[in-house]
Amino acid sequence: MSKYPHVRVQLSGLDPSFLAVFARAIAAMQQAKIEEAQIAAFKREALSGNHRHLLAVCLKLFECR
Questions:
Q1: Which residues pair with 4 in a beta bridge?
Q2: Which pLDDT tens digit goes with each residue over 10-20?
Q3: Opening angle at CA 9, ends 8 and 13, nearest 5
Q4: What digits encode the pLDDT tens for the residues 41-54?
Q5: What is the pTM of this model?
Q6: Using CA atoms, how far apart are residues 9 and 26, in angstroms rounded to an integer?
Q7: Which residues contact 42 (CB under 8 A, 6 or more apart)?
Q8: Bridge partners of residue 25, in order along the sequence
Q9: Cα–Cα 20 to 30 A to 37, which of 28, 43, 45, 50?
């Protein structure tokens, strides 16, 4: 089960680039009213690796489609 199951991030069918996925995840967190400290933690974790790592972080934290 994801940490934020109420945060939905679209991964398929849209721009798959690192920055696009990163931006969609942040926008989804903001829309779900996740605290800024938690968003900052996501940013640190997501930026600590490559594109595959970002996708893994998203899959771990969010409801992804």
A1: 62
A2: 999 999 999 99
A3: 130
A4: 999 999 999 999 99
A5: 0.93
A6: 9
A7: 25, 26, 29, 57, 61
A8: none
A9: 50
